[in-house]
């Protein structure tokens, strides 16, 4: 396909911070890749570069944040030549691509949910998308419906299910005064705790526990946006360990 205009729209939700949403490339060096990186949306686009290096077409735009919250997010990409409107959840960003070319020349297939391994360094470092998509529309084609009715030829659908599985995790919301207290495990040599958290506050106590027999305590907190671990041991000379990240 060699297109002057493109309209691509879809909705997604995921709890993963990395993953290729869709990808297409051509023999002339053109490509378009939409992916999640560090829970932000990144659009990479190249309408063509020349071999002399005087025309450099690679363009990269980043938008959004915290998109791995397992809520539905909508994407709309509208391209007319080098003019692009990228809309994420009704927030539109306008930009122009680098280079001098107006057409997107894609010789190979377009893939949604990942990219085929091409042997290029860029392909093996990227993760496939893990999550749910719906209402995928590419230049007037309802990709979701065509895939479900097996009308995409040739296509490699792979291990798809046409339903959205909800994660089994149960989130807990804490306000400034609430806390969750759980029973300890006496006579255990190992203290182990793991959790995921998200907050806008730069300071706060995450975990606190006293050791049995007045041996000390462990405290995990956020201090000015950094996570710190403090371990106090009462019966040794170096009685305090502080780790910050």
From TrEMBL:
Q: Which SUPFAM superfamilies match?
A: Concanavalin A-like lectins/glucanases (SSF49899)
Domain of life assignment: Eukaryota
Residues in Laminin G domain copies: 1-164
One Pfam entry for this protein is Laminin_G_2
Q: Which InterPro entries does the entry mention?
A: ConA-like_dom_sf, Laminin_G, Neurexin-related_CASP
Name assigned to this protein: CNTP2 protein
Species per Swiss-Prot/TrEMBL record: Mionectes macconnelli
């Amino acid at each position: 396909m060699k297109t002057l205009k493109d309209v691509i729209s879809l909705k997604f939700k995921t709890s993963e911070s990395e993953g290729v949403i869709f990808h297409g490339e051509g023999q002339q060096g053109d490509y378009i890749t939409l992916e999640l990186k560090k829970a932000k949306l990144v659009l990479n686009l190249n309408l063509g570069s020349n071999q002399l290096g005087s025309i450099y077409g690679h363009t990269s735009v980043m938008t959004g944040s915290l998109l791995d919250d397992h809520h539905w997010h909508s994407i709309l990409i509208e391209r007319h030549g080098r003019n692009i409107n990228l809309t994420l959840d009704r927030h539109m960003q306008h930009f122009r691509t680098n280079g001098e070319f107006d057409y997107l020349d894609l010789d190979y297939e377009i893939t949604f949910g990942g990219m085929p391994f091409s042997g290029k360094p860029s392909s093996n470092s990227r993760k496939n998308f893990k999550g749910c998509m719906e209402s995928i529309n590419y230049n007037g084609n309802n990709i979701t419906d065509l895939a479900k009715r097996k009308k995409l030829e040739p296509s490699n659908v792979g291990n798809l299910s046409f339903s959205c599985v909800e994660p089994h995790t149960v989130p807990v919301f804490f306000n400034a005064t609430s806390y969750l207290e759980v029973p300890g495990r006496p006579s255990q040599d190992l203290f182990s705790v793991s959790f995921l958290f998200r907050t806008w506050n730069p300071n706060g106590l995450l975990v606190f526990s006293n050791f049995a027999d007045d041996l000390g305590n462990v405290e995990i907190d956020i201090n000015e946006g950094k996570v710190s671990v403090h371990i106090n041991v009462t019966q040794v000379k170096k009685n305090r360990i502080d780790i910050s990240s």
